[in-house]
Design goal:
6-stranded parallel beta sheet; two-stranded antiparallel ribbon; alpha/beta; disordered C terminus
């Protein structure tokens, strides 16, 4: 059983807390939440609330920190965790800057500590099955891939929520939710960013509630010749001129 401390008891932190409590592989030692008003809910779940992250990270009986804290706190909290010899699981985004993310990865690697990131959709059965089929060339040459993610999970957020701020969510919907799709595409095809489009259409927030991102994956089109899909390679009369690539 791994003793852990959960940092943050907001919308997603509450979900993580309930899952950890039900999982026999983890001992949830405490929940760090600076908002005292939320402590009664933590206690009602049978958990121990504390106010200060600095207290949790120094607990000798805590081996790992699970961060569901605001995005701008991740860099510092990971650095403190590494300094105390603690493993880290950090919700995405890992950092708001490339430099911050790179420093966190490097620090954990050099200290021999595990750094996990909350890109759990890579482990969903349907997503994994598509990856398997891609690796087996079941679809032939992929020329275009499109993913869409629409939801109303954040529609009732209070106006002052950090999730509605350009400072803490600079990529709008891509910062917290759309990043899942970006990660899946990178896992599938590799990475090369081209352009991003954002717009404020519906929600009365300080950030846009619609985003469209265009990526170019050179790995998918770098071969000068077409490759037949796996199911067609056994056919003696396969002709690329008669086969459409996906």
């Amino acid at each position: 059983m791994l003793p852990v401390a959960l940092v943050g008891f907001g919308w997603w932190g509450r979900t993580i807390a309930s899952r950890l409590k039900e999982n026999s592989l983890f001992e949830l030692v405490c929940v760090v939440e600076p908002n005292v008003d939320a402590h009664s809910d933590i206690i009602e779940m049978g958990l121990t609330p504390i106010l200060d992250f600095n207290e949790a990270v120094k607990m000798e009986n805590v081996r790992a920190l699970i961060l569901t804290s605001p995005n701008d706190l991740h860099d510092q909290q990971i650095a403190q965790s590494v300094a105390e010899g603690k493993h880290v699981f950090c919700e995405k985004p890992l950092s708001l800057t490339f430099e911050g993310a790179s420093n966190s990865v490097k620090a954990c690697e050099e200290a021999g500590l595990v750094l996990g990131i909350g890109h759990e959709r890579r482990f969903e059965p349907a997503v994994m099955e598509i990856k398997r089929l891609l690796d087996e060339n079941a679809f032939g040459n992929i020329m275009h891939a499109e993913l869409a993610f629409s939801h109303d999970k954040l529609i009732n957020l209070p106006a002052g929520s950090w999730r509605t701020s350009k400072t803490f969510a600079p990529a709008a919907g891509m910062t917290q939710m759309g990043i899942h799709l970006t990660d899946i595409l990178i896992w599938y095809f590799g990475e090369r960013f081209v352009r991003s489009y954002n717009a404020a259409i519906y929600l009365p927030m300080n950030i846009s509630d619609w985003a469209r991102n265009l990526f170019l994956y050179l790995s998918a089109i770098k071969q000068p010749r077409l490759t037949p899909p796996a199911w067609a390679q056994s056919g003696a009369n396969w002709n690329p001129r008669e086969t459409r690539s996906n």
